[in-house]
Amino acid sequence: MTEPLPQERVESAVRKLAAVHEEVGKLVVGQRDIIEGALTCLITGGHALLEGVPGLGKTVLVRALAQAVALKFSRIQFTPDLVPSDIIGTTVIAEDERGRKAFTFQPGPVFSNIVLADEVNRTTPKTQSALLEAMQDRSVTVAGTTHMLAEPFCVLATQNPLEMEGTYPLPEAQLDRFLLKLHVTFPSHDDLHRILDRTTGDAEPSIRSVMSHEELLAVRATVREVAVARHVQDYAVRVLEATHRDRPGANALVKRYVRYGASPRGAQACLLAAKARALLAGRVHVSIADVRAVALAALRHRVILSFEGEAEGITTDQVLAETLATVPESV
Known about the structure:
Elements: H1 7-24, H2 32-44, E1 48-51, H3 58-69, E2 73-77, H4 85-88, E3 89-95, E4 101-107, E5 114-118, H5 125-128, H6 130-137, E6 139-142, E7 145-148, E8 154-159, H7 172-175, E9 180-183, H8 189-199, H9 213-224, E10 227-228, H10 230-241, H11 252-257, E11 258-260, H12 264-280, E12 285-286, H13 288-299, E13 304-305, H14 307-311, H15 316-326
Parallel strand pairs: 1-8, 1-9, 2-5, 5-8, 10-12
Antiparallel strand pairs: 3-4, 6-7, 11-13
């Protein structure tokens, strides 16, 4: 049996995460769930896909988060003419002080701690796939040589809705590498006023660095030690199984409209995100409520609808909402 987390470690992590949230909130109005989702990916070692129409503050959120945690940050603007070497780097001929020439590796912008992949679905699938090895293995291979990325490494990608012109759907294999897919919604009436107050005045809020590299790694270790009871883990497994049409727990919506259910990475994402949610609330044990709260973001991009489901306008969120409503918390 593992030892319970020391209270001082929990309190330190909660305090640091609250400070980061407060700093990001200086620039990002509302969107509390989106900020927590991005924080969740940062402290669990995952990646996030933020989807929403232009102008909702996705890029501002990622940049503010990078400033608050004092990590190396880079932004990649994805366009149709972008090529893989623009992301991962390339081998070039360099000349030393003695005039001797040799091949040397010139790292690309992916060699950062936080990478903003802006409008990732604006570029071709070949270039999108350049991120795949980096996201999965924390390394890139160029000219037969593998180069490791520094930890922590987190990709926060933004995406416009796929029905907009000039976009390329992300491959399923790459979607599966995102821990969470977060839907950025339009702000409320009051939030719009707050946005205008902050952005059209003579003073612009500044972001302080409130978490160091070492502190972030310590928080990551703490998240992994948050306890998960067997019945809570079993609930996450049963929710995952219920997204597969050939499993006993599948409901009528899944059997009719789902082609493929979520992969085992979906269950991993649910538990890791649930651990982060529990720690953000100052708790050292994951509850079923935590799993339910993160299930949509962890599974929505891993469920593949059938042609009939797409034709009838069914969304994965509808399927997952019905799944969460029908899977019992205990058996």
